[in-house]
From TrEMBL:
Encoding gene, per UniProt annotation: der
Binding residues for GTP 1: 9-16, 56-60, 119-122
Name of the protein in question: GTPase Der
GO molecular function: GTP binding; ribosome binding
Species whose genome carries this gene: Polynucleobacter duraquae
Record text on subunit structure and interactions: Associates with the 50S ribosomal subunit.
Length: 454
């Protein structure tokens, strides 16, 4: 399970800048004034082969009692509670502030591992800029620059090493077909996730209650079906950020993201009696980004008239059209209808995610696709796609080699993806297309000649 690293500090010390660098995104707003981040942001980070979940928090004032500052403090305290290690970020240019001491005292009492990072130290002597912060008693301060990236790699390596996080197992072991398939059931609160799991295993294993937010944590349930071992993971319902008020429900978000990242197949549950929401699309986006095989289950289908059913089908096709690789099943978790077909597609999605794609066949499909439709010209030339091979499984990755591949458009990549899917019958899994451009020896030679003339 990916470790959780939470960034904590007073306002305007560079927490969101560090978060954006670690997640290679711009998900957190950054500006040169305090209090910009009020809620928590979750993102996926990776250093080398080691992945982690990063949490950005608002400016922390632990003693605040009322108002928005108190709400921000509540969110930060919960982020600390769900973290594996804390990066306490301070401002090296402004130096020690009284608020830093208050935060340090609070963090020390939590018992969580803490790394003290002194930010904004670019162009300064590290020994001088970190000297004052030894007073906090949190170990050796780590000088970094969130904006420029100085020291950030070493900071995260140190954090993961201190947790004893081992290097990931080789891909063949992670994708061992003899291991039980892990299936995460995710969706908005009260769509029937726990009811579905109870119906599949034939007992009241998890609490099912007609009130949103009953499930607080991700619960693993081993079971067998037709002689095959599975592990079902019941997750807490993900709400829109503005709709979550209880701190304990915030805890469930990171657990759900971890469950998606750690499973083999996701069952995304929708409510046929409700409109497809922006939150449904966000959850689906998490699944696709994680590269997980997917089956969509539309629950509470029983009792609906034909007009409502048709409207639900159209809405799913429009609002979740980026899930066109996944099969959609109308079910009733309560009555058990449609579950046999649902599980058949779960097995098919897993088989597609673990499919082996031979290099000769991939290259032949690529060449046939190019003959049917060539990529668009870029300037005076056209990208040349030479051959393809498989670069990974779960999700399948197709690596295409050639020259000038940076000019291949997204629409042409989708065209190639469709051709690969059609031939290999890759239903229920995302497919990654990766372009690997060969170096142009003539360009390098020209550069060498110009250098000699100088």
């Amino acid at each position: 399970m990916n470790p959780v690293i939470t960034i904590v500090g007073r306002p305007n010390v560079g927490k969101s800048t560090l978060f954006n660098r670690l997640t290679r995104s711009r998900d957190a707003l950054v500006a040169d004034f305090s209090g910009l981040t009020r809620d928590r942001h979750y993102g996926k980070g990776r250093i080398g082969e080691r992945a982690f979940i990063c949490v950005d928090t608002g400016g922390f004032e632990p003693v605040a009692k009322t108002g928005i500052v108190a709400e921000m403090a509540k969110q930060t305290k919960q982020a600390v509670a769900e973290s594996d290690i804390i990066i306490f970020l301070v401002d090296g240019r402004l130096g020690m502030a009284p608020q830093d001491r208050v935060i340090a005292d609070f963090l020390r009492k939590t018992g969580r591992p803490i790394i003290l990072a002194v930010n904004k130290t670019e162009g300064m002597q590290s020994g001088v800029v970190t000297a004052d912060f030894h007073e906090l008693g949190l170990g050796e301060p780590f000088p970094i620059s969130s904006a420029h990236g100085d020291g950030v790699r070493g900071l995260i390596d140190d954090a993961l090493d201190s947790l004893g996080i081992p290097e990931p197992e080789p891909e063949e072991q992670e994708n061992d077909p003899n291991r039980p398939m892990k299936i995460a059931v995710v969706g908005r609160p009260n769509v029937g996730k726990s009811t579905l799991i109870n119906k599949l295993i034939g007992e009241e294993r998890v609490i099912a209650f007609d009130m949103p937010g009953t499930t607080r944590d991700a619960i693993e349930v081993p079971f067998e079906r037709n002689g095959k071992p599975y592990i079902l993971v019941d997750t807490a319902g993900l709400r829109r950020r503005g709709k979550v008020f209880e701190a304990i429900e915030k805890f469930s978000v990171v657990k759900t993201l971890q469950a998606i990242a750690d499973c083999n197949v996701v069952i995304l549950m929708l409510d046929a009696q409700q409109d497809i929401s922006e939150q449904d699309a966000h959850i689906a986006g998490f699944i696709v980004e994680a590269g997980r095989a997917l089956v969509v289950a539309v629950n509470k289908w029983d009792g609906l008239d034909s007009y409502v059913k048709e409207r639900a089908r159209l809405e799913i096709a429009q609002k979740l059209r980026f899930l066109d690789f996944a099969n959609v099943h109308p079910i009733s978790a309560k009555k058990g209808t449609g579950l046999k077909e649902l599980f058949k597609d779960v097995d098919l999605a897993y088989a597609a995610a673990m499919a082996k794609l031979p290099t000769p066949k991939l290259t032949r499909i690529l060449q046939d696709a190019i003959e049917h439709q060539q990529p668009k010209r870029v300037g005076m030339g056209r990208p040349k796609l030479r051959y393809a091979h498989q670069g990974g499984m779960n999700p399948p990755i197709v690596v295409i080699h050639g020259t000038s591949l940076s000019g291949v458009t997204d629409s042409y990549k989708r065209y190639l993806e469709g051709r690969f899917r059609e031939v290999f019958k890759l239903i229920g899994t995302p497919l990654r297309i990766q372009m690997n451009t060969a170096k142009n020896p003539y360009v390098d030679a020209d550069k060498g000649k110009k250098g000699k003339k100088k």
